Amino acid sequence: MTKSARKLAPIALLLSAALLITACSGSNEENVLPDPKQAFCDKGKEYEALITSGKKVSVDEQLAIVREINANAPIDIAADTQVFLRALERVSNGDKSVVDDERIQEAIVNVNRRFAQGCGLFDRKSAI
Q1: Is residue 112, in this structure, part of any structural domain at all?
Q2: Domain assignment present for 124
Q3: CA nearest neighbour of 5 among 69, 84, 81, 96
Q4: Per residue in 21-72, pLDDT tens?
């Protein structure tokens, strides 16, 4: 994994942690967004497992999954998944500027949020 890719993966991980806090804070609003395709959810889970595994992850491994996430993204998040995909492609080509790009970081947060909320990551089934 390149130095830039190693920097981008922890950013995605930190943003996932921020998303967890946001998602767990709750909301009284009804979900008005359509459910995402199962492939979007499956690939999102695969990506999360990959970047949180603690293993060395190549940009190519990340790209393969993010391409599928992008291809199956709900219309409301498609622009952000495209930004995320293009950022990883730029990293793959040696562009280190993406690591500090606030627009890219915001897109990753948006994709993570849509994944977590749309794919039932925080659904509570218990009475507790």
Answers
A1: yes
A2: no
A3: 96
A4: 444 444 445 557 888 999 999 999 999 999 999 999 999 999 999 999 999 9
Instruction: Yes or no: say if 50 and 61 are a contact pair by the CB < 8 Å rule.
Output: yes
Backbone angles phi, psi at 43, to 5 degrees: -70, -35
How is residue 81 written in tokens? 């998944």
32 found inside a domain: no
Does residue 77 sit within a domain?
yes
Q: Which domain holds residue 12?
A: 3-19+40-118
pTM for the model: 0.72
Q: What is the number of structural domains in the chain?
A: 1
Cα distance between the two ends of the chain: 42
The SS3 assignment for 67 reads helix
Taking Cα atoms as reference points, which of 35, 50, 70, 69 lies closest to residue 5? 50
